[in-house]
Structure formats: C-alpha cells, structure tokens
Amino acid sequence: MNQINTSPARSPLLKTEDWWAVWLGGLVFLLGLGPLVGTDLLGWAVKTNVWLSASKALVPQSENYAFLPGWVSLVLTYLFFLVTTTIGATAMGWNVKKYMTGFTLIFALTYGCWFLGSYAHIAATKNTLAKLNITWSMGLTQEIGFVIAMVVGLIIGNFWLGLASYLQEAARPEWFIKTGIVILGSALGIKALGSMNLASTVIVRGLCAIVEAYLIYWPVVYFISRKWFKLTPEWAAPLASGISICGVSAAIATGGAIRSRPQIPIILSSVIVVFVAVELLLLPWMAEMLLYKEPLVAGAWMGLAVKSDGGAVASGAITDALISAKALATMGIKWEPGWMLTTATVTKVFIDIFIGIWAFILAIIWSVYRIDNRDGKEKGDKVSAAEIWERFPKFVIGYAATFFILLLIGLLAPHAIKAATTGADQANGLRGIFFMLTFFSIGLVTNVRKLWAEGMGKIVVVYAVCLFGFILWVGLFISWIFYHGIMPPVVGG
C-alpha cells in the first residue's frame, strides 16, 4: 500500500536559497532606486576606504549621511544584514537562534578580514600611491580581502572544529553569493548605459570580448581540464567559466547551473583572485613596455586577460597612467586620460553581461546530456521542460531583471542616469559584503584534505597552464586585431 504524503506543501518561492537570493537581492536593488525619487535609502551603509589611518577607514556610502561616524554606519549595515537574512532563515526553517548568533560572529570576522585587506600598503595600486602619500604597496587591491576571509574561514573550519560546527547554521555561501550576483546585475546595467555614451568604435570592438571569451577560451580550458588533467565536469565547467568570463561571478553561476557542490566554484574563485593579483603585478608593466604606441590595444588586453571586475578596472587604470606617462616622455604626445581605462571596462562589461545567458545554456546542456548523471538517469532519457526549469538557477532571473530594469530606466529617462548610477553604486557596496560573507563561509565549511584528494591541487596548475600558455596571448592577439591603430584624442591636438 502506497503511503500518503501528509507533510505540508513547501512553496519554492519561500523555501529555497535560490528564491531568497532573488528576494534579498531585489530588496537591495529597490532600495538603491531611492535617488530616482529624491530619497537616499542606502547611503547609510558602510564603505571601507583604502586606509593608512584606521580612524578614517570606515565612512557611510553617501555624503548625505556624512554626519554618521564610520562605526555607526558599520553597525547599521550589520543590523540590516542580520534582520533581512534572518527573515529568510526563518522562512526556510533554519534554527533562528543559532543563525543569528552565528551570523553575528561571521559578519564581525568577515568585515575584519576586509578591513585588513584594505590597508594601503597591501591594497593600494600604483596609480593611487601619490594620492595616499606613500611610496610602496603590494598593489593587491581590496579584493585580497576575499582571500584573507577565505583563509581565516579555512583555519577555523579545519582546526577549530567546535567553533566551526557552531557557526555552520549561518555559513551559507550559496545563498550569500547568489544574492550578490542578483545585485551585480544593476551595476552591469549602469556600466552598459555608460558604454552607450562612448565612441561607437570602442563599443563595437568591445564585442570581440564575447567572441574571445565564449568561442575560444571556454572550450579550450574545459578540454585541457578534462583531457590533460582529468578533472571532473563538476570542476572543469566552473573553472572554464571563471577563467573565460569574469572570475567569481561566472564560476558561481556555472556551479549553480550544473549543480556542483557549493564549495567547488568558490575554491576555484579563490584561486582566480590570487592569479588576478599576480596579473595586476605584471600585465600593466608588460603593456607599458610592449604597447605604449597602441594604447587601446593595451586597454582591451587588460579587460580580456584580468578575470575580475575590480582587477580589470584597476589594471586598466594603472595601464592608462603608465602608458600616458611614457607616451608623453618618449613621443611628446599627451593623450586624453581615461580611454585605456574605458576600453578595459567596456571589454569587461561585454563579457560580464552574458554570465546569465551562459548559465542558462549550461543548465540546459547538463540536463539534456546528463553530463554528471547524478540522478541515475541515462543520457537518452527524455528531459521535460519542468526538469530544466527545476535545474535552472533561479537567482539568474534576479540578475537579469536588475540588469534590464536599470538599462530600461536609463534608455527611457536619460536624465535619470546619474541618480540611477548613485543608487546602483550603493547597492553594489552591499553586494561586496555578500561576496565577503561567501568567501569566509566557504572556508568554514571546506574540508581541505578531502578537496585536495579530489584534485584541488591540480587547479593551480591548470590555471597557470591556461593563463600563461594561451589566454594572455590569445587575448593580446584579439585586442590587436580589433584596436590596432585606434588612438585616444590628443590633448591640445
């Protein structure tokens, strides 16, 4: 006799991390629209500057809240995160008391890591040294805070097992990163609007990034990972996306699409962040030596080669400063500043925009061909539309929605772009905190011995082989094809 299921029906709209990522990311997005109606709803949130004096590190995001001390802004930010995520935790049936106490400690430790990573001698890039009145820095950018958070989480998770067990109710890396990606859509919408105001030549050539990232990098990295290093599809696909598209976000979106274990794309992302730091130390100076007569080629190369948004923009800014100075010193040409940075940013934006599309394509491919075969079905079994929908990462819907809403606002009301940009920047500040929480949490729940045995040690080798073996040089070649001979305006020319 068949048993009758008498358990209450669970609404996926309120019971899954995917949908709660949409709701929380959507809430931050909506609050970020406040400047459109003359209201600043997110400006109180904390922002951490690159700092020399700790007392000046923390400030509110908006000058409208400049009266708030930095520590008050931090407390308000913590309370916002605690209240909103606790509502979601309650709806999903978690242990609310353990979640709230665990989240409080995780937030404090995570923000401490970000604070440390923002110290000027660690984070400042070369183009900001004079402004900070310092002569040296490791130049790792504030994104090194992600790596520090990851390391601290790993130490607790692998050595302080009692504390790690207590915190695990609040260590929810998938939820945090998916919420951050939803918010990221609004930032990309603003970037796309900005791109529309650039010279059409730069925009059209920026499309080369799509060809380069999706038709060349991805399949080659995936092939090398699978055939040469024998990585499973669960590792190979997020790695290929992380290297090909935009690091953290692409690796996480791909991991969600193919249903990899949550720690895998984050582990891959931490490796990517480390390599981004290496690229920041090398590529701008290589561009200065090789491409000072081809400035936009150099800018595009930074956008194609550096696999994080912050890293790509920082490398573009450094390259802009280095090449502009060398061109003036050696050729007597003073180019209008910002064009190399703009080219790097535009190229990166065109790559970023298609994260959601690529995740959707991979979700279908993994469903139809059952590449991992985890559900016990065979490749020839019929795949229903419902199954594809069930596998599809719902947070991508939020990502696409925030992107297109911002884009539509800018297109229909160009006068509102400045206000929309302000709000999107504020929302993006909270997105960064979700990313920080992700890195700490994944470290906390990661069993290093087990992952190393499964092939984590190969990841660094695969990345190095792909990056230095062909990614840098293919990116340089494509940048040359599309931007060779195109020069920025000459100041006074």
Could you explain how this protein is built, in words?
By secondary structure, the chain is mainly α. Helices cover 71% and strands 1% of the residues. The chain has 22 helices and two strands. It has a two-stranded antiparallel ribbon with strand order 1-2. α4 crosses α21. The relative contact order is 0.15.
State the helicity in percent bands: over 70%
Number of helices: 22
Strand adjacency order, main sheet: 1-2
Q: Tell me, what's the shape? A: globular
| SSE class | mainly alpha
What's the alpha carbon Rg, rounded to whole Å? 23 Å
Mean pLDDT: 80
Spatial gap, N to C terminus = 88 Å
Proportion of strand residues: under 5%
Order of helices and strands: HHEEHHHHHHHHHHHHHHHHHHHH
Low-confidence blocks of residues: 1-9, 197-202
- The overall strand count is 2
Largest beta-sheet details? 2 strands, antiparallel
